[in-house]
Amino acid sequence: MEGKVTGITGFGAFVSLPEGKSGMVHISEVANSFVSDIKEFIKEGDTVRVKVISIDDAGRINLSIKRAAENPAPRGQQPAARSGGFERRAPRPRQGGRMAQSKQPRDPASLTFEDKLKMFMADSESRMADIRHNTDRKSGSRRRK
After folding, report:
1. 3-class DSSP state of 36
2. Is residue 6 a contact partner of residue 22, using CB atoms and an 8 Å limit?
């Protein structure tokens, strides 16, 4: 459907939809490439073609510009699986040679956005903890307490 951009924030754009409704396009749903400044892609007052991704329990409408631009798959065919911007990696060896405990990986096409986000956040948190640990060890900040 088409809508008019009514406001732009650092994290996305608000779009006025038909029937007096409005929704939000998150910055990650504006273009297929990395978007650091949403104003480089759209501006207030622009008419944009959007696709409704979801409507949450509070009634907020989540929209996507990049998915509206994609060609829909013919009926009966599934679109190619997308990784959601990150790859599923094999578990990394941890300190002491232990492997990360993980569940059996599911088919990426069956994962919801929330599942992908949860996996990404867990992996990111683990990597950040490893970085903090190694940085603290090198600077000796933990031993000085």
Report:
1. coil
2. yes
